Structure formats: structure tokens, C-alpha cells
Amino acid sequence: MAQNGSQSDHLETLDRDLGRFLTLERATAYMARPMVGPSVGFIFILLAGLLAALSFGQASNTLIIIIVAVFGAYMALNIGANDVANNMGPAVGANALTMGGAIAIAAIFESAGAFIAGADVVSTVATGIIAPDAMGNSTAFIWAMMAALVSAALWVNLATWIGAPVSTTHAVVGGVVGSGIAGAGIMAVNWENMIAIAASWVISPVMGGVIAAGCLWFIKARIIYQDDKITAARKWVPVLVGIMAGTFATYLAVKGLGHVVKISLNLAMLIGLAFGVVTWLIMLPVIRRQSAGLENRNKSLKVLFGAPLVLSAALLSFAHGANDVANAVGPLAAIVQVAKSGSITSDVSIPFWVMCIGALGISFGLFLFGPKLIRVVGSQITKLNPMRAYCVALSAAITVIAASWLGLPVSSTHIAVGAIFGVGFFREWDAERRLKKAHQSTNGPKIAPEERRRRKLVRRSHVLTIGAAWVFTVPAAAILSMLIFFVLSGVGGSF
């Protein structure tokens, strides 16, 4: 008996020790988890520097190219962490996509957009804001581009950390403006472009919000508030999906494939009209089949909007990759061009290895750091379902096309987030309108102010945080870029 008791005590002691080791392993894994993303990101940045060294070869300024490639990779990671959330957030928030599925689709289509249609956008970022000949010499131009890249990357990193989706395009523009002023004076800046960009701070979110709210109003009036919702859905959902298909065909022709083959806006709209009509005809029997047996309630309608929402997220990612890869590698491409030729030109070509850094960096950034901003955009501003998320996606495409037609520079970030705000504020207005109508019909008491505040459907804290980040993006990046330019110019003799 004593021996059995001793063995039992030993086993209990062993169990306690094993339990302590298990607890220690879990604690270590929990503490180490936040370090996985930065560690993998750091490895990617080092590989980008190595790729630059191997690709550029032996030259007197190879070290500068390696350093700029490192910062280009850092910027690409930040774009993936911040900007891509605008495309995937609504689909994830509406539960049409899982987080893993969204990241996989975005990584594929962002990379495809960057490789297939991203090269021609780079010259605008590299030379369209500051006149290249205004910098005086190639060395000053290199420092200006490097300062712009570093300042934009730091600002986007800060915005991601505080949970604010910002325009990476505006961050790069601010960085180029700041370093250009520091290197060549205030007159070197193309102020007409800058005024248009500043105007887009207001135009982009307002246009996105109004179009998204109008789309949601149409869905509510024609489908949700109808007595026979399924019959109404069979009539109008094919039309809405056809509009989305046509809009995205036009969007991709203007903002994506238009960089491969020259396509006028009128031709792009004809292409979109053809795609829209064909899709509408295809979707008529599809929606009829999908809606068979569905109950006459709002929850049933979500099934019909799931697939179009996933497709829209993929297409938005393709167009985003085609356009915003320039934010990561535009300054890098300009520096490589100057380093090779020794002169500053307005025509900037982009080597394949530079595009690899941008495209892969965006995908890595999304995979490692993107979920935080995807959650903010998808669920923390206002609650989204497939119908509301559809309105956001459609609004983003329509707004970009309208802006292209009007010749206005707009930010995809501002449009998407503005559309989410528009959907949320419309829901608040519609809910209060219906509540007032119900109270008036029953002669009930007025709604107390406390109850009105409780019914707010948009988080005001996010409105203030995101709005402030938008306003400060260009000036903050510009000031930071000026400081970095002065530092680089001071130590430039070391290279």
C-alpha cells in the first residue's frame, strides 16, 4: 500500500511538472506570436536587398540601390497591411468570405494586377509631381525619391498601427512634395496637381458615400421592403449583378487593362454595357434557381448577393494592384533609372525585379499584417451584410469611373471607406425615419435623446480617427520627407 501511494505521489508530481512545462510552452507561444509577422517581414526586406544587389550588379552606387530596395519592400508591406483592407474588408465583414479566403484571393489578384498592368503607372509617381530637371542634379533627385519613400512608409505604418485606413497614394505624393520643396524650392511642385489631390480628400468619400447610400436605398425600396421579397429579388438581383459586372468591366478597362492596351473611356463604357447585358441574361435563370425554396425574409436575400460580392472583391484587388504598386516602387524605379543612366528623365521604365518587390511585398503585407485593418473596415465602422457590402463595392467602381470621366484624381481608400460611412449613415437615417413614422401612427411618446444616441449605427470614434488621418497624411508625409531629405543630403558624401 505504501509503495502504491509513493508511486501515486510520483505520478502526481510528474503531472504537475508536465503541466508547468505545458503552461510555459503555451505562454512562450503566445508571447512569440506577435513577433512572427515582423520577423517574416524583416526576412522579406533582407531578400529584397539581396535581389537588388544581384540584379544591379557591381557599380559605384549599388549600395544606394540596395538601401532604396529595402525601403521599397518596407513600403510594399505597409501598402498590403493598410490599403488592401478596403477591397476585402466589406466581403469579410459581410461573412461572404473568411479572413483566410480573403487574404488568398487578394494576394493572387493584387499580384496579377501589379505584374500585368502595373508598370505604366510608375512614371506618374516618379516624375509627375516634381519636375525632374528642377532638382538640378541626379544626386539630389535620388535623395528626394528616397526621402519620399521612407516618409510615406513610416506614415502608413503609423496609420496601420492606430487602425486608420489611409491613402498610400497621398502619402507618397506628400513625401515627393516635401523632398521636392527641400531640394528645389516651392516652385518645383506642380501645384495644379496638388490642388486637385487636396480636392479629392472631400470629393472621394462624399461621392462614394452618396452612391453607396443611393444603392442601398434602391435595394431596400425595391426588394427588402416589398411584401414578396423573393419575387422582387428574382426581378432586381439579376439587374443589380448585371450593373456590377458592367461597372467592373468598365473599371478594369479604365484603371487596369487600360495600362496594357490604350482604351478610351467611351470604348470602356461600351465594353461595360455589353458585359452588363450578357451578365443580366445569364443571372436570370441562376437567381431563379438559387431563390427556389427560400423563405420570404431578409436573411434569405443574403444568399443571392454572396457570389457577386466575392467576385467584386477579387476584381477590386486586381485594379488596386495595377495602380497602387507604383506607390511602393515608383521612387525605386526612378532611382534605378537615374543610377543606370546618370541623368534625370521623365520617362521611367520599371525592371522586372523592381516589380517583383512591389507585387510580392503587397501580398506579404496583407498576409502578415492585413487582418487588423480588414476588421476595422469590415465590421468596426458599421455592421455590414452582403447587400450593404455589395453597395460599397459597386460604389467604389462607379466613383472611380465617374472621377476618370471628370478628370478628378481620387483615392480608392477614401472612396471605399466613404461608401461604408454612407451606408452606415443612411441606415441611421432610415431607421430613425421609420421609427418616427411608427410613433406618429400610434401617437406614442417622442424618442428620448439618450435612445437616439444608443441607436447610432456608425462608430463616431472611427469617423474622427480616420478623418484626422486623412487630413494629416499629405502634410505629415511632406514634413517628414523634408527632414529625411536634409539628413540624407548631409550624409550623402558617405556614398
By helix and strand content, what is the structural category? mainly alpha
Q: How many independent structural domains? A: 1
- How many angstroms does the end-to-end distance come to? 81 Å
Helix count equals 16
How does the major sheet shape up?
Answer: none
Determine the strand fraction and express it as a percent band. Answer: under 5%
CA gyration radius, whole angstroms: 26 Å
Low-pLDDT segments: 27-32
Give a count of the beta strands, DSSP E runs of length 2 or more: 0
What level of helicity do the residues show? over 70%
The arrangement of helices and strands along the chain is: HHHHHHHHHHHHHHHH
Gross geometry: elongated
Mean of residue pLDDT values: 78
Put the structure in a nutshell:
One of its GO terms (biological process) is phosphate ion transmembrane transport. One of its GO terms (molecular function) is phosphate transmembrane transporter activity. The protein is mainly alpha-helical.
List strands and helices in order, with pairings.
Blueprint: H1 2-56, H2 62-82, H3 85-93, H4 99-117, H5 122-127, H6 138-162, H7 168-184, H8 191-224, H9 229-255, H10 265-290, H11 298-341, H12 352-380, H13 386-406, H14 412-442, H15 449-454, H16 460-491
Helix pairs in contact: 1-2, 1-12, 2-6, 2-11, 2-12, 3-4, 3-11, 3-12, 3-13, 4-11, 4-12, 6-7, 6-11, 6-16, 7-16, 8-9, 8-13, 8-14, 9-10, 9-11, 9-13, 11-12, 11-13, 13-14
Subcellular location: Membrane
Keywords: Membrane, Phosphate transport, Transmembrane, Transmembrane helix, Transport
GO molecular function: phosphate transmembrane transporter activity
